[in-house]
Amino acid sequence: LVEGAHQNRGLGHAFLRHAERCDCLLFVVDLECSDPAAQYSVLLKELELYRQGFTDGHHAVVANKVDVPEAMGRLEVLRERIDGRYPLFAVSAKFGTNLLSVLNYIRSAYDATVDRKEKLS
């Protein structure tokens, strides 16, 4: 998702329409980036500008590259920005660090969605 997606930049509306059908979103931010908290904010802003309330459902933040030297300080800034509102997973895709926690979260979110849909039908 790129800045300006709500104005149909990049994959724009095609991607956003697809994302609307998702029951759970994972926001993957790069801890090697100088400001991953700003990166997360841009993602939220783009979704909300596309459709107000877009981010009200299940979502979590996956902070990748926890193995880089600058990661811990940037992770703390991101943690403060999220302020406990959503799950935050610090991972290293390269080394497999904490990926099982992310998979468990996805499974729990999926199970909750299936249960909710079964109760509605």
From TrEMBL:
InterPro entries: G_OBG (IPR031167), OBG_GTPase (IPR045086), P-loop_NTPase (IPR027417). GO terms for cellular component: mitochondrion. GO terms for molecular function: GTP binding; GTPase activity. The keyword NAD does not apply. PANTHER family: DEVELOPMENTALLY REGULATED GTP-BINDING PROTEIN-RELATED, MITOCHONDRIAL RIBOSOME-ASSOCIATED GTPASE 2. Keywords: Nucleotide-binding. This is OBG-type G domain-containing protein. Residues 1-111 form the OBG-type G domain.
